């Protein structure tokens, strides 16, 4: 079995996105698009990844400090073949197989890459690509086969004849090449097309023309084939990813009452027998334990940890806080930058006032405390176990120090 590396193309400007940010950094369910492609490569055993960057390159590099990534700069975007050729210095002596993928394809799945790799090895081919069959193939390169079904080449959408435009099998840009043959073919690519760019698909055609075996396997599901080239497509990709996230959670024992009106970040972790009520938004690296109930209309932000049997009700927001077993915050509360002990009740409309206009401070609430409705807890603050805060009370550390032991009565 040949050693494998991956090249991910992430240098594009994307005029249709109308953005000053690198396209691959736009988020799908809380994570940059590029992160999903990197994950898929790692899941199939790729340990060395070359990411080609250009537009807003420093932005992209700042987001990913992974040790398995080598950054390749494409100073001028002249097409996909040119982007891959920028990696030649690093890969000219590599005697293995090279995956080539696009960084703007967040719906990629590792299972598709596994199928691609297995087909490549079984057929002992020089190049293998995974294709998709779409009802509306507009915008994609078409797969051209002979009457026996053998791969003949790829024609980009803008260069297709009327007959080729009718082909529904398309190229979603999942490639696996013999590395040495790939770079030999890249040297011969010419910009003989409508856009005047150097196409990677022309390198594939060159490999076929020299008699090497090239195989296309229809392994990409229609919803996975989609790349993101506009804000509308970004929204569509996010909805598909959200369905995947929720489906996996439900298979793992989480109840999501109304999936269409719930949004859960890809980084969130939710354990068995928790119930997510409608209109709940979970954003960031949130962790929710067993048997919790969240929502409706709850908002959980990054850094939130709910232990087991926690109940958060309507219009409750939690940010960067840990709530221990048995906490109840059922109505209109804000808990920010806090540690809340076991079996604490937080009454309707109570908040932790964690920001004084200059800095954010923490609130620590002990076990078995009662926080009455409409209470304001001004951070920095520490409430001892068993503290009772009456409804409408404003509590600061200074007031507690002045009362002394009376705070526990």
Structural category is alpha/beta
CATH architecture group name of the largest domain: Alpha-Beta Complex
Q: What is the strand tally? A: 34
Low-confidence stretches: none
Query: What portion of the residues fall into strands of 2 or more residues?
Result: 25-35%
Termini, distance in Å? 72 Å
Q: What does the overall shape look like?
A: elongated
Count of alpha/pi helices? 11
Name of the CATH homologous superfamily of the largest domain: Spore Coat Polysaccharide Biosynthesis Protein SpsA, Chain A
- Average predicted confidence as pLDDT: 94
Helix content: 10-25%
CATH class of the largest domain: Alpha Beta
**What is the count of distinct domains?**
2
Described by strand count, sense and barrel closure, the largest sheet is:
9 strands, mixed
CATH-defined topology of the largest domain: Spore Coat Polysaccharide Biosynthesis Protein SpsA, Chain A
Radius of gyration: 27 Å
What features would you describe in this structure?
This protein is of the alpha/beta class and 409 residues long. The chain folds into two domains: 4-225, Spore Coat Polysaccharide Biosynthesis Protein SpsA, Chain A; 234-408, Hexapeptide repeat proteins (UDP N-Acetylglucosamine Acyltransferase, domain 1), CATH 2.160.10.10. 23% of the residues lie in helices and 28% in strands. The chain contains eleven helices and 34 strands. The strands form six sheets. Strands 1, 4, 5, 6, 7, 8, 9, 10 and 11 form a nine-stranded mixed β-sheet that branches. It starts with a strand and ends in a 6-residue tail after the last helix. The relative contact order is 0.09. The model has no long low-confidence stretch (mean pLDDT 94).
């Amino acid at each position: 079995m040949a050693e494998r590396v991956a090249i991910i193309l992430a240098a594009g400007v994307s005029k249709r996105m109308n953005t000053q940010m690198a396209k691959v950094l736009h988020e799908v369910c809380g994570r940059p698009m590029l992160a999903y492609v990197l994950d898929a490569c790692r899941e199939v055993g790729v340990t060395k990844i070359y990411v080609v960057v250009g537009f807003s390159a420093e932005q992209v590099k700042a987001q990913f400090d992974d040790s398995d990534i080598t950054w390749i700069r494409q100073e001028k975007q002249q097409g996909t073949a040119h982007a891959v050729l920028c990696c030649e210095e690093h890969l000219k002596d590599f005697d293995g197989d090279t995956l080539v993928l696009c960084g703007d394809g967040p719906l990629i799945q590792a299972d598709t890459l596994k199928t691609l790799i297995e087909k490549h090895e079984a057929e002992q081919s020089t190049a293998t690509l995974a294709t998709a069959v779409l009802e509306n193939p507009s915008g994609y390169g078409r797969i051209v086969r002979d009457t026996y079904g053998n791969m003949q080449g790829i024609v980009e959408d803008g260069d297709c004849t009327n007959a080729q435009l009718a082909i529904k099998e398309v190229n979603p840009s999942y490639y696996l090449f013999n590395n040495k043959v790939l770079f030999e073919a890249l040297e011969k690519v010419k910009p003989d097309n409508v856009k005047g760019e150097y196409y990677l698909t022309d390198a594939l055609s060159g490999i076929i023309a020299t008699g090497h075996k090239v195989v296309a396997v229809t392994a990409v599901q229609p919803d996975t084939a989609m790349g993101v080239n506009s804000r509308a497509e970004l929204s569509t990709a996010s909805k598909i990813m959200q369905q995947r996230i929720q489906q996996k959670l439900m298979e793992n024992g989480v109840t999501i009452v109304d999936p269409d009106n719930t949004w859960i970040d890809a980084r969130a972790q939710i354990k068995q027998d928790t119930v997510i009520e409608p209109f709940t938004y979970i954003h960031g690296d949130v962790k929710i334990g067993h048997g919790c109930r969240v929502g409706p209309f709850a908002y959980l932000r990054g850094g939130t940890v709910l232990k087991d049997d926690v109940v958060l009700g309507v219009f409750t927001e939690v940010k960067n806080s840990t709530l221990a077993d048995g906490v109840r915050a059922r109505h209109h509360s804000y808990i920010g930058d806090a540690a809340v002990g076991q079996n604490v009740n937080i009454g309707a409309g109570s908040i932790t006032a964690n920001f004084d206009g200059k800095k954010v401070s923490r609130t620590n609430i002990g076990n078995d405390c009662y926080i009455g409705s409409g209470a304001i807890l001004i951070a920095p603050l520490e409430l001892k176990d068993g503290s009772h805060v009456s409804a409408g009370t404003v509590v600061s550390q200074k007031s507690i120090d002045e009362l002394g032991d009376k705070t526990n009565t």
